[in-house]
């Protein structure tokens, strides 16, 4: 079967399942008695196995199968999964995750890892279950005893007396049949319908445990001579290849005894005993009769009670069920189209106003509908931040295990919704911040005790809406950040000069951690230090039109606060005019707008600056900075936009402020892509096209370059 | 006329795979349910000649669904589609009245054969 067409769907669904699986294990770790979680985990692994098997992903299937077998032991709730078990489970889930990355072919080392883990699991199961299995052995030993054998023989004798005919039935299953035991069960059910199974070879228990190749035989007492019907019914069962019914007479003997020798253990089975009298005299009839079929479900279910199904309805599963999968491209297209409509709405409102009353009211109605449509379309792109947050408990848990720290992660506001394009890019910075808190914030348990804190550290991860923004906070109750230490390190690394440092407040000093090339961690750990420090976090947040701040109190806490727009598709901008051209500046980078008298503009080495409340800020005319044209300073008071991005402030001199507007970002298309200082374009209500200024990009280009931009003051 | 089939499985992936496979074998998939409860509803609406039923599903499991379907229509033909290792559940489903079972991962001809055997 060609499965490639399903691969994408498989991956999407598998990713959801992996998420659910990790959550289940984490809850189990907190509460090992939670059978619902265990069953949910079991269900998920099971579904994954089925899916992977169908795709032909052998390695994935193997792992899922092993994991499922391992969990089976705990599903009944008789035993709780202890910490060691959970470690094994987590390890297996990780390998499963790994195997999903490239499911078509597994690497040898992956298979080796899995084999090792499987070995560990087996050992654990054996170690734990020796007691159980020895008990089972005792039982089966008893079963081999004489008592039951005598009863079997009694049954046969009575059957003969009643005129029923004992017969020997050989059933052959198709090679490669799966779940043979259940096929056996189905076959036995047919037997029970028409008579009674006295004996089977191999024994019923072995049949249930699938300890047979393809065929098995039973001694069967048929109530009526309805051989054909039995045969037909059994042949109707899938995977039954062949059935042979031989009346229990001497003819059967010769053929049977040969075969029976192959089964060394059971060779004393009925083969010699042609006559019923002989049979009853034989004490070596070992196998117990297959008893009433009604008992079978209990027997087969040993150690794995049927799943109480109501318990499987976890909220997560429900949430998945209510989802419809849509390609993200389609959503983007929809939002884009709605954006066009919004523009058209504005234009039609302007054009149509005052022509006639009916038109006006229709336009009003259209406007309302389009606004609703816009909200709905934007809502489609919104996803709860839970998607990102969900992986963190697992991460913190693993970090705790690896680093010998005790940290509890508290998450709140995970239902907060954000545009999916933002969510996707939020994961890396958040991982970075959390690891930073874990590694540099939270002290070792001993240190914490010394300081009189609880040995267990806390990290709080919160999200909430604040107006048109989403605020995400990462806070730890660790050592805090020492501004002096940061300052010294910054000077040493040449991030700033000593003189500059002395002018900074403590708060500003701490903010130095966001500068490029800054990392205080003396040692590089696999947790957070790799030289790519907080500046990477700042850059990714600013790329999302957001900002990040840090607050810290030495010895008490450190808090990182990120502010992000709800969506990237629509942003709030200030429209300004420079050299006669309209530009849109995203408001989140704007610190303030001021009118500046000409006399306030000073120059340092021919570069114009302004001293704004004691702070010296470099000035540029926007259009020349963008390289779009030379601009004269306007006469009289000079409109100035003070922006801050990439930890740098600057003043943009513009011709005029035009107004604030929410705009829909359009991509510039491939040939204008990468244009420096321009983030995109938008179509305004009157149909005119405006460029959106990428302030962070402009300012981080490097001071020198910016300073080369001449300014005509 | 081709036989009508209702496919009940909680993973979209399995539903799609089964559907394509069944359609290749000349069956007409008239409905897809993602849990037991949906399956029962759809059965009542569509009265298909055949149902393929997963066992472990949220909302209502396959076994309960089989029971409900059979109490609605004692002649319903339900085939269990189950992954390996659910022996006791498959047996329970058979006891509940399922006509046969197929094990995932399945080979297309097996499904066709199983369906043909039970006259579906």
Order of helices and strands of chain B: EHEHEHEHEH
Q: Kindly identify the CATH topology of the largest domain in chain A.
A: Heat Shock Protein 90
Structural class of chain A: alpha+beta
CATH-scheme architecture of the largest domain in chain A: 2-Layer Sandwich
Please describe the biggest sheet of chain A, giving its number of strands, its sense, and whether it closes into a barrel: 6 strands, mixed
The top level CATH class name of the largest domain in chain A: Alpha Beta
- Quickly give the structural class of chain B: alpha/beta
CATH superfamily membership of the largest domain in chain A: Histidine kinase-like ATPase, C-terminal domain
The number of E-state strands of chain B comes to 5
**Distance separating the two termini of chain A:** 73 Å
Under CATH, the homologous superfamily of chain B reads Response regulator
CATH topology label of chain B: Rossmann fold
Number of domains of chain B: 1
Domain module tally of chain A: 5
Task: Report low-confidence residues of chain B grouped into runs of 5 or more.
Answer: none
* Largest beta-sheet characterization of chain B: 5 strands, parallel
- The end-to-end span of chain B amounts to 12 Å
The shape of chain B is globular
């Amino acid at each position: 079967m060609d499965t490639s067409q399903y691969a994408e769907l498989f991956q999407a669904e598998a990713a959801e399942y992996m998420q659910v699986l990790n959550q289940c294990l984490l809850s189990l770790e907190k509460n090992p008695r939670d059978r619902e979680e265990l069953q949910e985990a079991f269900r998920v692994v099971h579904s994954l196995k089925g899916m992977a098997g169908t795709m032909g992903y052998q390695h994935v299937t193997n792992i899922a199968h092993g994991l499922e077998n391992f969990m089976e032991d705990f599903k009944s709730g008789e035993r709780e999964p202890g910490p060691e078990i959970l470690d094994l489970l987590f390890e297996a889930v990780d390998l499963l995750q790994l195997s999903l990355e490239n499911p078509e072919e597994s690497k040898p080392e992956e298979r080796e890892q899995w084999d090792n883990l499987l070995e560990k699991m087996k050992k654990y199961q054996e170690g734990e279950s020796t007691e159980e299995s020895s008990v089972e052995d005792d039982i089966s030993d008893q079963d081999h005893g004489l008592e039951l054998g005598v009863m079997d023989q009694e049954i046969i004798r009575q059957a003969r007396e009643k005129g029923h005919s004992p017969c020997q039935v050989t059933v052959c299953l198709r090679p490669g049949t799966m779940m043979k035991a259940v096929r056996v069960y189905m076959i036995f059910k047919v037997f029970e319908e028409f008579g009674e199974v006295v004996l089977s070879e191999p024994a019923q228990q072995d049949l249930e445990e699938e300890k047979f190749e393809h065929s098995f035989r039973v001694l069967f007492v048929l109530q009526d001579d309805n051989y054909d019907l039995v045969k037909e019914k059994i042949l109707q069962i899938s995977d039954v290849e062949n059935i042979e019914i031989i009346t229990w007479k001497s003819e059967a003997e010769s053929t049977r005894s040969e075969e029976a020798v192959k089964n060394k253990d059971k060779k004393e089975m009925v083969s010699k005993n042609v006559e019923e009298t002989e049979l009853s005299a034989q004490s070596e009839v070992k196998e117990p009769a297959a008893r009433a079929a009604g008992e079978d479900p209990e027997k087969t279910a040993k150690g794995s009670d049927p799943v109480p199904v109501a318990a499987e309805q976890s909220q997560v599963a429900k949430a998945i069920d209510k989802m419809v999968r849509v390609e993200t491209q389609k959503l983007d297209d929809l939002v884009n189209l709605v954006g066009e409509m919004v523009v058209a709405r504005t234009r039609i409102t302007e054009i149509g106003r005052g022509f006639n009353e009916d038109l006006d009211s229709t336009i009003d109605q259209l406007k309302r509908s389009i606004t609703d449509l816009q909200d709905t379309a934007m809502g489609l792109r919104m996803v709860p931040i839970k998607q990102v947050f969900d992986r963190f408990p697992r991460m913190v848990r693993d970090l705790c295990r690896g680093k010998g720290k005790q940290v509890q992660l508290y998450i709140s506001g995970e239902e907060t919704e954000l545009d999916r394009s933002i969510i996707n890019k939020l994961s890396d910075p958040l991982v970075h911040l959390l690891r930073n808190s874990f590694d540099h914030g939270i002290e070792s348990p001993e240190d914490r005790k010394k300081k009189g804190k609880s040995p267990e550290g806390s990290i709080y991860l919160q999200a909430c809406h604040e107006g048109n923004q989403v605020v995400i906070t990462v806070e730890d109750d660790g050592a805090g950040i020492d501004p002096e230490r940061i300052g010294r390190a910054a000077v040493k690394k040449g991030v700033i000069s000593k003189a500059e440092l002395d002018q900074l407040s403590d708060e500003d000093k701490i903010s130095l951690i966001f500068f490029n090339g800054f990392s205080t961690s003396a040692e590089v750990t696999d947790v957070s230090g790799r030289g790519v420090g907080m500046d990477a976090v700042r850059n990714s947040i600013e790329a999302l039109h957001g900002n990040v701040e840090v607050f810290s109190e030495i010895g008490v806490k450190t808090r990182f606060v990120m502010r992000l727009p709800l969506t990237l598709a629509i942003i709030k901008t200030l429209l300004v005019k420079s050299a006669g051209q309209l530009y849109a500046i995203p408001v989140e980078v704007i610190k303030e707008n001021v009118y500046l008298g000409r006399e306030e503009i000073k120059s340092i080495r021919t570069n114009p600056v302004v001293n704004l409340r004691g702070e010296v800020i470099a000035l540029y005319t926007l259009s020349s900075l963008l390289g779009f044209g030379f601009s004269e300073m306007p006469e009289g008071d000079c409109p100035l936009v003070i922006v801050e991005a990439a930890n740098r402030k600057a003043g943009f001199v513009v011709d005029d402020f035009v107004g604030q507007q929410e705009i829909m970002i359009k991509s510039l298309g491939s040939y204008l892509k990468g244009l420096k200082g321009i983030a995109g374009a938008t179509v305004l209500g009157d149909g005119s096209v405006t460029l959106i200024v990428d302030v962070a990009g402009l300012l981080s280009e490097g001071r020198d370059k910016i300073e080369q931009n001449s300014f005509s003051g | 006329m081709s036989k009508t089939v209702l496919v009940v499985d909680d993973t979209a992936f399995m539903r799609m795979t089964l559907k394509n496979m069944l359609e290749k074998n000349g069956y007409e998939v008239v409905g897809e349910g993602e849990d037991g409860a949906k399956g029962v509803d759809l059965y009542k609406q569509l009265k298909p000649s055949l149902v393929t039923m997963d066992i472990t599903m949220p909302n209502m499991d396959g076994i309960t669904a089989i029971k409900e379907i059979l109490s609605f229509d004692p002649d319903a033909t339900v085939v269990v589609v189950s992954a390996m290792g659910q022996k006791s559940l498959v047996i329970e489903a058979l006891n509940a009245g399922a006509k046969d079972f197929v094990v995932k991962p399945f080979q297309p001809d097996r499904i066709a054969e199983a369906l043909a055997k039970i006259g579906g």
